[in-house]
Design goal:
10 helices; 83% helix; mainly alpha
Length: 254
């Protein structure tokens, strides 16, 4: 009976010691890690948070805007082709102004050069399409900028944290234990992880949206060729031939 009581006492003591050890070695929470870097670390965390919110907004915006039904409406393309077949450029302009899209913006660029004939219209379409494509690319390039800046901001936080960690060692003249030094280092590495967590999705979204814009621009060019084909096939107007009459003999003698 005494032996059983001794065994129970040993197990109880071991479990209490294990709980105390695990409680002492338990890692700090996220809030404690964030605020452990002081006001400099807090500013870096806020900068990373701002970059993440901006990237999320840009991704959500591009998901809504880079849709084929919004960029190249099929109904608008059909109506524009009918106007070209009937020679109603004024009606085409009104349709494009009522339905703003990538297709309508490029079509307006071609209508502006309609007085110069098909060659001028084609030049206007190509130039306007290039301008619109550049505008779309500039919008998604912000994701690439965020993807490149976020790791640098995270690395800055890590470097600052390492400086503070080794400063503690210098102040204590080597009295800081390895555990205290390791705690400062892993707290400093949190910002690097945060920067990478922002950069990887941002760069991936940038690549996806860039390919999507290329596809939409190519489809817009194909749709414009279909819309303006009746005018392209129309024979050019021939200039009237002037007939030069020879002078009368009486007037030539004079």
């Amino acid at each position: 009976m005494r032996t059983l009581a001794f065994v129970i006492f040993v197990f109880a003591t071991s479990s209490l010691q294990a709980q105390e050890t695990s409680a002492a070695a338990a890692p700090a929470g996220l809030t404690e890690i964030v605020f452990s870097g002081g006001w400099i670390g807090l500013l870096i965390i806020l900068a990373l948070l701002g970059l993440s919110l901006t990237a999320a907004y840009l991704v959500f915006e591009q998901l809504l805007s880079l849709r084929r039904t919004q960029m190249i409406p099929d109904e608008l393309a059909r109506q524009l082709r009918q106007c070209v077949e009937q020679g109603q450029l004024k009606q085409m302009q009104q349709l494009c102004q009522q339905s703003p899209s990538l297709l309508s913006s490029v079509t307006l660029g071609g209508i502006a050069e309609a007085e110069g004939g098909w060659e001028e219209i084609q030049t206007g379409l190509e130039e306007t399409l290039a301008e619109q494509a550049a505008r779309l690319f500039r919008r998604v390039e912000y994701l690439s900028v965020i993807g490149n800046i976020a790791p640098m901001v995270g690395l800055l936080g890590t470097v600052v944290g390492m400086i503070f960690a080794f400063q503690q060692v210098a102040v204590t003249q080597g009295g800081a234990s390895a555990g205290q030094l390791a705690e400062g280092i892993y707290q400093a590495l949190v910002t690097t992880v945060g920067g990478l967590l922002i950069a990887i999705p941002s760069l991936a979204a940038f690549a996806v949206f860039r390919n999507r814009i290329d596809q939409l621009v190519a489809e817009t060019a194909h749709t414009l060729q279909h819309v303006w084909r009746p005018l392209k096939r129309r024979p050019p107007r021939s200039a009237p031939i002037r007939t030069v009459r020879p002078p009368k003999p009486g007037k030539q003698d004079e």
